[in-house]
Input
Amino acid sequence: MTPVLSERTAHEAAHDLSLMHPAQLSPKDDSVVARDALDDTDGCMDDSDCEDELGDDLMYPFAGCWWDSECDSQDDLTEDHGTVMRR
Output
């Protein structure tokens, strides 16, 4: 299984275990319109800022690479992620 496929599979499974995206971006202007409620999630204000702060997070809503580029791993989980999944 490719890293992208395995990370996306883990991402979707984590949704089933109640995890949300750390930031939801507006399609109009790429500003943050919603955040998860976890205390240990880094804050960000827009698409570029969020990618820098949260791009390694398993729950970041956009893939860490495209088919024609190098892939950045998206496998970080915080302590609060673990707490939510264990509930």
Remarks:
- The chain has a mean pLDDT of 86.
- The beta strands are 23-25, 32-35.
